[in-house]
Amino acid sequence: MKVLWKTLTLSAILIFIALVLALSTYNIAYAQEHRNAVNETMTSLFNNFLDGIKTSIDKFLTSTQSAFIYLIHRGLEVLITIARASYIALGLLGLVLWATGISPYRGRHLIVGSIILAIVSEVAYGLIG
């Protein structure tokens, strides 16, 4: 009877150990699956966060680039407008100086300078137009 009792006790202990191992293996597998799901969720959230930052930086740089291009374009338009007023004024002054004989040499040079300024400013306007 003692041998039978020891055998049954040993069998019960082995069955208990087998059950504990089986349940712990199931829990470990479930925990691993749960950990993978959490890792995928965290990775997805992190990637979405980084994509949002990249998009914000791209929008900022695109806006800045557009602002600089507009500023340069507008500045060139103002410069061309000033150049137009200048070549008209220089041409008229040169014409007056040349026609009245006050300073025909200087008047002729002012007329030539205004023609050169007119050509440069009109070509520049055609390029940015």
Briefly, what is this?
With 129 residues, the protein is mainly α.
What's the layout of helices and strands?
Blueprint: H1 2-100, H2 104-128
Helix pairs in contact: 1-2
**For the terminal residues, how far apart are their CA atoms?**
111 Å
Question: What percent of the residues sit in helical stretches (DSSP H or I)?
Answer: over 70%
The number of distinct β-strands equals 0
Topology order in helix (H) and strand (E) letters: HH
Total tally of structural domains: 1
Describe this structure in words.
This protein has 129 residues and is mostly helical. The protein has one domain (2-128). It contains 2 helices and no strands. Helix 1 runs antiparallel to helix 2. The longest helix has 99 residues, at 2-100. It is rod-shaped, with a radius of gyration of 44 Å.
Q: Could you list some keywords that capture this structure?
A:
129 residues; mainly alpha
